[in-house]
Amino acid sequence: MPALCVALGFSGCNLRNSSSAGATNVTTPAKDHHTLSNADSIAVTHLWLDIAVSLDQKNITGSATWTISNTSGLSDLRLDTWDLTIDSVQVDGVKAVFRMDAADKYLGSALHIPIAAASAKVQIWYKTGKKARALQWLDPEQTHDKKYPFLFTQSESIYARSWIPCPDGPGIRFTYDARVKAPAGMLALMSAENPQVKNDSAIYHFRMEQPIPAYLMALAVGDIVFDAVDARTGVYAEPGMIQSARWELADMGKMVNTAEHLYGPYRWGRYDVIVLPPSFPIGGMENPRLTFSTPTIMAGDRSLVSLIAHELAHSWSGNLVTNATWNDFWLNEGFTNYFERRIMESMEGSGYSDMLWNEGYEILVDAVRDMKDTSRDTKLSIELNGRDPDDGFSDIPYEKGSLFLRLIENNVGRARFDTFLNRYFNEHAFKTMTTAHFLAYLDSNLIKGDTALQRKLDIKAWVYGTGIPANCPKFNPVRLRRVDSETAVFPVAKESVKGWSTHEWLYFLHKITGHTDKEQMKKLDEMYHLTLTGNSEIAFDWFMMALKAHYEPAYGKMEEFLSHVGRRKFLEPLYKEMMDTPGDQDMARRIYAAYRKNYHPLAQESLDKMVK
Ligand code: BES
Ligand code: ZN
User: Fold this and answer.
1) Catalytic: 345?
2) What is the CATH number of the domain that holds 333?
3) Quick check: is 286 in a domain?
4) Alpha-carbon distance 426 to 525, whole Å?
5) Which pLDDT does position 10 carry in this prediction?
6) Residue 248, domain member (yes or no)
7) What is the CATH number of the domain that holds 131?
8) Of the residues 238, 286, 311, 537, which is catalytic?
9) What are the pocket residues of ligand 1 if the criterion is a CB atom closer than 6 Å to any ligand atom?
10) Whether residue 188 is found in the same domain as residue 323
């Protein structure tokens, strides 16, 4: 690796790639096509955020002050915005004449601020708009306790710009301080050093000392309480949920220790989780120091906590070593999926993690089938330029990415691979990484010209090829083979399912989805009360089966599920299944019309296109 590239922290650096891995031998600089900011030429190093959150008016008002170092002497600082009203701008205390470009469909509007070579502080007074895509404002009925309104943000991938005027690309990092005025009686939390109790003023101060990219900016405001798990981990939730959340996440402390044991020290101080109201549109978000989680992981038996292992793992893969652009998204998610399974293996044994690997493999097979294996988005290195970065969001970066790493592990041996990963995280901490740089690093530090190994890995097929490469690892989990024999005769015996975890159930349901008729569904339901399950993953699979088999006794519970759960992973396939079945389209329209208001703006955006 050329020393210059290391010194430059990789971004914007040409690097000669001597491995057989790349499609070409020379990589191009990491140009991020999803930011309009020029902060890669003007160092934008620190944010001082001073905002007030109004849960009544559903807006954020205040100012963002950026510390800059304009060493290249440019005369125009560009920042990203999306539906923000900019009231005024000062550069070093002097009013500046700013201007805004017309909005791009995906990227929003660039805010132009005139600066001089010596300019050091740029302060922007602004308010958020009604179409802020990062913000979900909940009315009391949409929360767990149904007493107070709530706000949470979701900034990944390019939504931070809808609540902060900022350089909104994963390749630009900054530290921040914030002062947030919340409504009386509410607590505010950020991806930073956090308060644990409310105060009378409802003004809270935050500090994030490690440089992070904008997509990790996060804020939650509501009636939130805290309960410690151990000295450095704890849980936040609404009062009515705190006890069950604390119980479900009791192993968090152990999880952080396990992760550190694998890949080196946790570098962010505390690790806390906030369990959000059910409309949170995703499973989890790795906001530094404070993972945001869906409440749908609360299965009552701790069986879905691998999601927390995943978000925690991002404290290394993603938050420490960050994908340079959204084209390199697999570097965040594939590594994290791999790391997640290693944490789960350490905690629960390989019998358990093998089930997760197998689940992932099956998800990949389905995804590639659904995307048709010629689809360009089944490559690890994808091309999102000129597209919505959300188009790159699929199971591919997660599952194909982690299976690629597993393949390397299988070939070089775990000890060598772990040493490599430890060094990788350490040497690139707080830096960005492109696919090409990773492959070059892999080549010089692990493959080292071993041509037999190169042939066995076939990196080119994995990274630049579509579909599932022939050498993809496969799994044969003992526990699932047991399920196979236990379920050979229908219906499954009660004694068999007693020992099943969520993952055995998911395997079984996945296997029979689409091959089960109404009568069999009825029989299964009588024996196992699947319609009434409190486990969201099992419920989701069961409702999908019910729709396919027209098993109507489950429809009432499915509607109840759709009335309050906002997790897109569940919503979108259920509505799609209904819309694909002519007889169920009216049901989809009726349910969507009734509960659309409960869904996140981004879920509404995609469902509006689907449910017509
Ligand atoms: N960082 C992702 C969530 C994300 C990705 C948000 C892309 C927006 C754009 C997070 O770490 C994640 O992967 N969450 C998963 C859960 C995980 C266990 C696979 C989710 O939300 O389903
Ligand atoms: Zn993730």
Assistant:
1) no
2) 1.10.390.10
3) no
4) 51
5) 34
6) no
7) 2.60.40.1730
8) 311
9) 156-157, 282-286, 307, 310-311, 314, 333, 393, 398, 569
10) no
The reply to whether the predicted model has a pTM over 0.90 is yes
Counting the structural domains of the chain, the total is 3
**Protein residue with least CA distance to atom 3, ligand 1:** 285
Is 407 part of any domain? yes
Helix/strand/coil for 81: strand
Mean pLDDT by 10 residues, the chain (612 residues): 35 34 42 96 97 98 98 97 98 98 98 98 98 97 97 98 98 98 98 98 98 98 98 98 98 98 98 98 98 97 96 98 98 98 98 97 96 88 94 95 98 98 98 98 98 98 97 97 92 88 95 92 96 97 97 98 97 98 98 97 96 96
Residue 367 is predicted with a pLDDT of 95
Query: Residues for the chain: how many in total?
Result: 612
CA of 565 to the centre of ligand 1 (A): 16
User: Tokens 């694998």 belong to which residue?
Assistant: 262
Q: Is residue 474, in this structure, part of any structural domain at all?
A: no
Six token digits for residue 157? 């991938």
Report residue 154 as tokens: 């979701």
Claim to verify: residue 431 and residue 506 sit in the same structural domain: no
Nearest ligand for residue 282 CA: 1
**Structural domain containing residue 79:** 43-223
Q: What is the pLDDT of residue 373?
A: 67
The answer to whether the CB of 478 falls within 8 A of the CB of 354 is yes
Domain boundary among 223, 240, 272: 223
CA of 155 to the centre of ligand 1 (A): 12
209 membership: H or E segment, kind and range: strand 203-213
Residue 147 structure tokens: 């007493």
Residue ending a domain, choose from 175, 207, 223? 223
Structure tokens at 40: 């890669």
